[in-house]
Specification:
Elements (H helix, E strand, L loop, with lengths): L1 H29 L4 H20 L3 H21 L1 H12 L11 H16 L4 E5 L6 H4 L3 E6 L2 H7 L10 E5 L2 E7 L15 H12 L3 E5 L6 E5 L2 E6 L1 H14 L19
Parallel strand pairs: 1-3
Antiparallel strand pairs: 1-5, 2-4, 3-4, 5-6, 6-7
The chain binds adenosine-5'-triphosphate.
């Protein structure tokens, strides 16, 4: 027994490392828009590899061996927003630091969102965490003012110059407003999901920010994180979810909601 262990402990370590890597890759890709394409592609390649091995088809085997480089490029293109976010997280040491707004600012923000909802004023916020949002902030107008319901409702009043676009919240302050966020290209089932919600999904696909949305059409309050939209939440639900995400980040448990309010996956 001891002899076997001595001979094969390296194999055990390798299996363990590979299992962790494969599981992490699965967790990473599972929730992304390219997951189905990736699954289809892998199944096709595995099928072809199996058939070509069994029937000894030399040309297909040769082609499959050389295709791996193109596959790697395809993966980078397919998962570009997700990879950007992961690299940005690593670059910003986000894993080791949290930029958590104080509870008072959250109360102010949620209070303002409810006022905007009651008046049917659309609004979009990105709460900055570890990843720097300076490039996005530069697409808008610098505000750098303490959060207050009056300021927020004024910014998103439809007759003001800054109401169009999103506001960036950084440590209890509105850093800038009227910002243009990246728009998510995910396919969504719900026709009520327009550009504002897509911009919320987009900014959270590419950064670790949490986006909050007030729908102009329905007054619904929503949250987006890591590209996923949690649509039409009750104010208390929104507060709890926000606290959860700000405390635990990606480790926060997935919300229990019914379609299409949670994961607006591919059609
Ligand atoms: N890329 C973007 N970044 C930030 N804000 C955006 C972006 N694109 C659109 N918006 C905002 O969304 C508004 C248009 O929202 P639209 O009606 O298409 O979205 P929606 O998701 O249906 O939301 P609502 O329920 O509020 O109507 C624009 O007036 C603008 O303020």
């Amino acid at each position: 027994m001891w002899e076997i262990l001595k001979q094969h402990w390296r194999d055990g370590v390798e299996i363990l490392i590979l299992a962790v890597l494969v599981y992490q890759a699965y967790l990473f890709f599972r929730a992304t828009r390219g997951a189905r394409i990736l699954t289809g592609l892998l199944m096709l390649l595995l099928g072809l590899a199996l058939v070509s091995q069994l029937l000894k088809l030399e040309v297909i085997t040769w082609l499959l061996q050389r295709i791996s480089v193109f596959l790697a490029i395809a993966l980078v293109v397919l998962f570009q927003p997700e990879l950007r976010r992961v690299l940005a997280e690593l670059g910003s040491h986000r894993m080791f630091s949290l930029n958590r707004p104080d509870p008072e600012s959250l109360d102010v923000l949620l209070e303002a969102m409810q006022q905007l909802s009651a008046r049917r004023c659309g609004a979009l916020f990105a709460i900055k965490r570890g990843i720097d949002l300076r490039l996005l902030a530069e697409t808008g107008v610098s505000v750098d003012a303490r959060l207050s319901p009056e300021l927020i409702t004024t910014i998103f009043h439809p007759k003001t110059a800054l109401h169009d676009g999103g506001a960036i919240i950084d440590q209890g302050r509105i850093a800038s407003a009227g910002c243009v966020f990246p728009v998510s290209q995910r396919e969504v089932r719900d026709r009520a999901i327009g550009l504002r919600h897509r911009a919320a999904m987009g900014v959270t696909e590419e950064t670790d920010a949490i986006a909050l949305i007030v729908s102009e059409e329905s007054g619904a309050l929503s949250l987006a994180y890591r590209g996923k939209l949690e649509h039409d939440l009750e104010p208390e639900e929104l507060r709890d979810r926000l606290n959860e995400l700000l405390t635990f980040g990606a480790a926060a448990p997935e919300p229990v909601q019914e379609e299409p309010t949670r994961d607006l996956g591919p059609v």
